[in-house]
Amino acid sequence: MVRFKNRYIIVEISSPLIPEDKPLSLKSKIFHETVLEKIQQLHGDFGLAAVKSGFLTKYCNENTRIAILRARHGPHKFVSSSLPFITKIGNLDVSLRTLHVGATLKQGFNFILKHQKAYLDSMWSKLKTDEERKNLEAAVMDFTKTDVTINIENIS
């Protein structure tokens, strides 16, 4: 039996047209398909076939603009080399920045936790009421924004 090693790529999605305090209207399925299309464009059929077997969008948060992609060790280089070239997701102009590449999901979530706490500290000064602050904290610290249907489609 062979163990498959995975790499988890944490990406920050920034859009110059939408202000920082507004959430992006971004679906993980569209993001997933955009990344695969860019891999196809840059690395051809070989790159797409290498990546596709273990590629999942694990997490996508519209408020903090962070996504986690899972790829197999080896083909993860195709994914990480394609990310900076993505300029459009759906109708949205974006730029992607790779924040972290880790071997476990736990490492990734620990990194995101630190990153999102820093984000939360910077955004709290802009909010006026405690209710707004609580809503933002709940949205930022929510690690359950995973599109389950896309993951079920790609597992089988």
Task: Give a brief rundown of this model.
The protein has 5 helices and 6 strands, in the order βαββαβββααα. With 156 residues, it is α+β, with helices and mostly antiparallel strands.
Q: What does the model show?
A:
With 156 residues, the chain is of the alpha+beta class. Helix content is 46%, strand content 22%. Helix 1 packs across helix 2 and helix 3 runs antiparallel to helix 4.
Question: How is the secondary structure organized here?
Answer:
Blueprint: E1 6-14, H1 28-52, E2 56-61, E3 66-72, H2 76-82, E4 88-89, E5 92-93, E6 95-102, H3 105-124, H4 130-140, H5 148-155
Antiparallel strand pairs: 1-3, 1-6, 2-3, 4-5
Helix pairs in contact: 1-2, 3-4
Distance between the termini: 19 Å
Broad shape: globular
Unreliable sequence segments:
147-156
Q: Which secondary-structure class do the elements indicate?
A: alpha+beta
Largest sheet: 4 strands, antiparallel
Arithmetic mean pLDDT: 84
Radius of gyration: 16 Å
Beta strands, count: 6
Note the beta-strand portion: 15-25%
Oligomer: single chain
Bin the helical content: 40-55%
Order of strands in the sheet with most strands: 2-3-1-6
Name the helix and strand elements from N-terminus to C-terminus, one letter apiece.
Answer: EHEEHEEEHHH
Number of helices, counting only DSSP H or I runs of 4 residues or more: 5
